[in-house]
Amino acid sequence: MNSNDLIGTIGVGIILLAYFLNMFSLIPNNGKLFYLLNIIGASIACFASYLINYIPFVILEGTWALVSVVGLVKSCKSNT
């Protein structure tokens, strides 16, 4: 496994962790932790996709990260 694969695996693993924690009701899908895990995971996966020059996944993961940032901002505003 090269470094690009390792970086991508970590990113996707974090996204999957958020998904599984949510599916088993360990974290809410509108909570800050859920959004943070998605932002971190998608950003890492986006970077890995950039490293291998795979633009479709750069777009996918970049969009995933941005949508999660919007969700986090909304979540923070609703709690204030």
TrEMBL record:
InterPro entries: CBU_0592-like (IPR058058). Residues 5-77 form the CBU-0592-like domain. Keywords: Membrane, Transmembrane, Transmembrane helix. It comes from the Bacteria. The chain crosses the membrane at residues 6-26, 33-52. This is CBU-0592-like domain-containing protein.
